[in-house]
Amino acid sequence: MKDVYYPDIALIDTVRDETGDVKTLRMRFKNPDTQKNLSYRSGQFFEVSIFGIGEMPISITSTPSRKAFFELSVKNVGLVSAALHRLPTGSEVGIRGPFGNGFPYEEVFGKNLLFVGGGIGLAPLRSLINNVLDNRDNFGKVIILYGARTPGDLVFKDEFKWWESQPDVTMLLTVDRGDEKWTGNVGVVTTLFPRAGIMSKNAVAFVCGPPVMIPFVIRDLLELGFTDDTIISTLERHMKCGVGKCGHCCIGHKYVCIDGPVFTYHEMKVMTE
Amino acid sequence: MSRYEENLWIITRDNLFALMEVFIKTREVIAPVRGHGGEVIFYPIETIEDVAWDWQYVNAVLPPKRFFLPQTEVMFEYRHDNSYKITPHYDDQVRMIFGIRPCDVNALIFLDRFFGGGSLSKESTDEEPLFPDSHYIKRRANTFIIAFGCHQPGENCFCVCCDAGPFLEEDYDLQLTSMNADYVVEVGSARGLKIIYGNEHFFRKASSDEVKELERIKEGALNTFADTCAYVSKAIRRITEGKVDDSLWEELAERCLDCGGCSYVCPTCCCYNIVDIALSDKSGIRTRTWDSCAFAGFTRIAGGEILRSDKKDRLKRRFFHKLSYRYIEKNKRHGCVGCGRCITTCFADISMPSVIEAVRRQ
Ligand SMILES: Cc1cc2nc3c(=O)[nH]c(=O)nc-3n(C[C@H](O)[C@H](O)[C@H](O)COP(=O)(O)OP(=O)(O)OC[C@H]3O[C@@H](n4cnc5c(N)ncnc54)[C@H](O)[C@@H]3O)c2cc1C
Ligand code: SF4
Ligand code: SF4
Ligand code: FES
Fold it and tell me: Taking Cα atoms as reference points, which of A235, A197, A237, A191 lies closest to residue A217?
């Protein structure tokens, strides 16, 4: 019987600074077979261990369509994330998972896809975006709307050009506060909606971002004709075990770590603390 | 009745004592023992004389939960020399729990489903476990259960309302019921039967009169329970339908002290925290410890926000988790076995029966 609490060891191959407080780590399992056998869905997460400090849930931001490594983007916010930020390349960390349900993928073949991201919330979406673009023919129109507090807080900037250059992709950025160099849109992410050419017909919207952003985005999406079942988001809860046992992530009848973190707006609406 | 074996056995008190002394030599035997303050707790015994034989107390103040999910346990140790080496810690101690009551056995069956994805004392499980918890499962598989049926309820017992007593119908190894000066033994599992056949000289088959007498004892015991429990199903329905007004939880929240005692004494509460402890630059342990949904920090996320910050929501969560129908479907029973320990423990009179009664009155 596999011990669900037993972490595998992974190596940090490269570290990329996304912003002042977000790093993207490219990693691989130390055991080549574990890496080779790794299979996951976009939207799933790992429990990442820094031994002696603790463990935290982090979305897998790489796409399952590219093997040989996986990537995590981590914002420095507390004990474990700060410890991970301090690690040089070549360091070892513990990894359990993948856990969680992940985004629908095969289920949205042929559909038009709208991605709405805020801040580090782009991390799980990035996995799905790249997975969609690597299999471009399976999907309809793709619109990516992304906002952050300041230009310096935008993550995955290196990839925006490639996303934009793919066939039938609209990509718009915004920041809450610009700086001298910023010539793009200023305002919350919903201010991009009128310019994005969004059509709700045969479309699914994926929304990930800070909790303050979600209700406004959903309100506007409903107005545009999206329904409770075509709006898909993720829930952030305190997590410890990741396997539906410790109780920390429970809300309503759901264990977010195994039943989520991906839910339709329909499912989220009926959950009570 | 669904005993493992239809035969009933009789063991005399002297033989039971002698048999238990044999077990004590070969495994850790946990039994109800009277502590220095007079309270009864489950504790490893060195001789069968240690057991609190008077049964004045009906049940121990704490359930034997900690022998399956310890208050703190080491999950693994790590060591970093050139590379990390992780050594899992498993508790392989062979144990016997002697004198466990039916409510607490039913709580274990509940935990079996939750941690193991199936009923562990049965030969086959009815579901493929999703993420089985090997730490719990190993302890449970290594623990032999000798339950004692209850002739009469304790002050706060309401197992009859919770389908959890005063006798077990299945999912035990052996169940003893005192009859005159002897004990009737029911066999509930293959390993229970093995114990009988392996020690046959201590037992004799019960006569048909003794079989009938046991039925009479069981009927009589049921009649000693007050029928205060007609409202459990009403509470289940109203909580499931979301028809309990928040004012009920608000009232309780004014009294609740956030102490978490209710969760700690509850035989089915099993939320835990995971904590790393560095023992040196190069080594340390990962532990898990009991936690409680009563604590505000239980849902604290990075940045300091507490998702269930309102105490009324935390109280609601505890009773919702125990009583809501969707959880019952998943766990195959509701999350209370009627042991009454939350009644004894709570300073604020917030217990399963008091909440069920408040729901009825609302
Ligand atoms: C499914 C899921 C996916 C996530 N994906 C990402 C991601 O891709 N990138 C990213 O930067 N962040 C992500 N987060 C948030 C991230 O888990 C927290 O920022 C992180 O746990 C903070 O840990 P810490 O030790 O640095 O903070 P501290 O505040 O010191 O937290 C201590 C411990 O509390 C728990 N905890 C605290 N905050 C959270 C939280 N928000 N969610 C769950 N547990 C928490 C963890 O066990 C953590 O180790 C995700 C959270 C969830 C639930
Ligand atoms: S035992 Fe009573 S006071 Fe303590 S947390 Fe539970 S309900 Fe609140
Ligand atoms: S809720 Fe109270 S009565 Fe029910 S099992 Fe838990 S401690 Fe016992
Ligand atoms: S994180 Fe432990 S139950 Fe979900």
Answer: A191
- Which pLDDT score, from 0 to 100, does residue B121 have? 47
Taking the C-alpha atoms of residue B175 and residue B112, their distance in angstroms, rounded to an integer, is 19
**Phi and psi at residue B324, to the nearest 5°:** -70, 140
Place of tokens 């609406």: A269
Do the Cβ atoms of A247 and B291 come within 8 Å? yes
> Is residue B114 helix, strand or coil?
helix
Tell me the shortest Cα–Cα distance from B114 to chain A, in angstroms: 8
Reading the block at residue B252, the tokens are 């309780």
Query: Whose atoms come closest to the Cα of B294: which ligand?
Result: 2
User: Structural domains in chain A?
Assistant: 8-99 (2.40.30.10), 106-234 (3.40.50.80)
Contacts of A244 in chain B (CB under 8 A): 130-131
Task: Give chain B positions within 8 Å (CB) of A273.
Answer: 307-308, 310, 313, 316-317
Q: Is A240 in the pocket of ligand 4 (CB under 6 A)?
A: yes
Confidence of residue B330 (pLDDT cuts 50, 70, 90): confident
Q: At B6, is the pLDDT very low, low, confident or very high (cuts 50, 70, 90)?
A: confident
Q: Is B312 helix (H, G, I), strand (E, B) or coil?
A: helix
- Residues belonging to chain A: 273
pLDDT tens for B69-121 read 999 999 999 999 999 999 999 999 999 999 999 999 999 999 998 998 655 44
Q: Which residues contact A170 (CB under 8 A, 6 or more apart)?
A: A141, A142, A143, A144, A196, A197
Instruction: Give the mutation target among A235, A248, A251, A259 for probing the ligand 4 site: most ligand atoms within 8 A of CB.
Output: A248
Ligand 2 atom at minimal distance to the Cα of residue B349? 2
Residue A84: alpha-carbon gap to chain centroid: 18
Could you tell me if the ipTM is greater than 0.90? yes
Q: What is the pLDDT of residue A47?
A: 98
Mean of all residue pLDDT scores within chain B:
90
